Amino acid sequence: MRKPVVMGNWKLNGTKSTVTDLIKAFTGVANANEKVDVAICAPAIFIGMVESLATGSKLQWGSEDVDVHTSGAFTGENSPVMIKEFGSTYAIVGHSERRGYHNESNEVVAAKFKAAQDNGLVPVLCIGESEAEYDAGKTLDVCQAEIKAVIDLCGIEAFKNAIIAYEPIWAIGTGKTATPEIAQNVHAGIRAFLKTFNAEVADGVRILYGGSCNAKTAPELFAQKDIDGGLIGGASLKVADFTAIIEAATANA
């Protein structure tokens, strides 16, 4: 059985004070909900703080992005080796904001996935379609292409140690959320696509839902067969909301 994951993505948010308060709260929540992997992906500048506050608890952590290089003349980038050194478990790659604002292609995202995994991090591959693509019925075409780029570079076996996060772009930060039925159908379609390469890998990989998942929508979403938790944005900055989402995942574990 796949263990659910509830992962917060803080994006460009946080201060030393808020990070301290949130991590102190979330370590307790993670310790109390052992049926769920609870993680926070923080801005790189705060990962050291998260490590110092969360070490010894069941809370896991990681980065919101990672570079393809491990070292060198790449000013401003964050090496997977550096991120791993601060106790990180995860590295998000391919978030729609990176794809959109930084023009990251499927091939660039696949290279970041490989760099993260090669250096001991678990890549969290974000995939998802725009509103226009959704309206055109191209959701699975987009998701499959984004996954296929990773398979072409790393092989299907790479998904034995990775997570997929389906985040419909039209639902990120908009307040819109795919209905449980829509989300389940996409997750099932993703798993079916993976099965064409390797059924065992497809059955084992954890596929999270993102896109304005909140305390109200989480229970129904997490009750779906192929939804294994959530990648949570704004709600992960609120103790009560993130706690409720974790508890919803625990109830369906």
From TrEMBL:
Subcellular location, principal: cytoplasm
A GO CC term assigned to this protein in UniProt: cytosol
Recorded catalytic activity of this chain's protein: D-glyceraldehyde 3-phosphate = dihydroxyacetone phosphate
Annotated active site: H95 (electrophile), E167 (proton acceptor)
EC number(s) recorded for this UniProt protein: 5.3.1.1
Annotated positions binding substrate: N9, W10, K11, G173, S212, G233, G234
Subunit structure: Homodimer.
Name under which the protein is recorded: Triosephosphate isomerase
Organism: Succinivibrio dextrinosolvens DSM 3072
Gene that encodes the chain: tpiA
